[in-house]
Design brief:
Strand content: 15-25%
Number of helices: 4
Largest sheet: 8 strands, antiparallel
Helix content: 10-25%
Oligomer: single chain
Order of helices and strands: HEEEEEEEHEEEEEEEEEEEEEEEEEHH
Number of strands: 24
Length: 445
Amino acid sequence: MTSGRSKRDILKFIIIGCFAVFPHFVYSSYNIALGKPASQSTDYLGWSADKAIDGVIGKDMETNGGGSCSSTNPTGSREAWWMVDLQQTSRIKTINITYRQLYPYRLSGFYLYVSYTTAEDNLQNTGYLCYHDDTKDPELPSFNQSRSCPVDGRYVIFYNRRPADNGPKHVPYNSTTDAVVELCEVQVFGCPINRFGLTCRKTCHCGMGGCDPDTGLCDVSWCQSGWMLPTCSEACPTGHFGRDCKETCHCAIPGCNRFNGICIRAGCDVGWEGPTCDKSCDVGKYGKDCKHTCNCASPGCDVITGTCTVPGCEVAWEGSTYDCDIACSISSFGSICTEPECDQFTGLCNVSGCNVRWTGSSCDQVAVKTNSKENLISGEKSGSNALVVPLLASLLFISIGFNIGFIIDRLRNSRQFPTLRFWECFQTIPHYARLIPSESSPRAI
């Protein structure tokens, strides 16, 4: 029967084996080195550099260049290197290395770099050092290496030299003069810059820098215009735009450009204005595109309905208690349009003179009433005199004309005078007027 301890050891072995053979289950990001161009300082018997990124985790070399491991020439050089080109700037998280299992001590003193250039001869100045083996334990390093390297770069470089910095290893086949690199697989987990998730299919649109290849969380706490936190990979919902989608566009027909806020169809919703319809109407304005004016006595009204914040209308406007949207008629003015027959704004009468019982420049004051009978009578008399004078003048003119005609007629009928011209008649009026009996003389019956 298998003991409890043996079961635990078996389970532990299975988990470690899964991590080594199926690392894509451990990371959300994936192996971005797989199948990419690789090179090394020297080739040796067909064990080319590309065998270390073929996706097969080998154990050892096979004869005549067989197997799935790469190798440089084991003799003749104090320096050796292997490099993979990720073909684009990438954000790296972890680098896994499987070395030739037969000679793991040849790893001793190795350097692991990430760089933007291929200058392997100047790595100390151009590359980022992810790890350097400086252990002096003759049993180390292990042929399986997993090193964290959270950095951006394009090239991953494995470098070694002899003698090793950490001193000689007193084991067989460990040269102190010849450097060699023997890699059975190199896995680089991460994503191209600004990509994340399983197989790096998602894109993060961070305000600056990049994002975590696994979680998508940005280096900074804000997104580019048109994208939402937390991963800056989701576009703004309808009606929102700008940085982190914090701006709101109030278009008449919903929908605006998520980057600049311009309405897809021109025209703002009621109560809003501006190129992006994100500006509320100014004080005193309301309605569609803020084209209407609210005429409230106290500034301020609802930007949608125009209802006054404080009851009361401005001069020359009326309406309900809160809606001052009707102009006074031509014959009224004031804050409630109740004053008669005048300009609706100034109150001045359109025709001079006030109606009965009204006075003032705008005829908006009630005349003072008196209880004096004499004032009433004198007012009536003055009114009567004003009518009598023109009437008497008209009657006098008619009477004169009539009398002149009458005189001419009598003279002609009596044949006592020669025929007279029209103007001569007026010359004879004083002479013959005595012949006409006056109204005061007694008439013969």
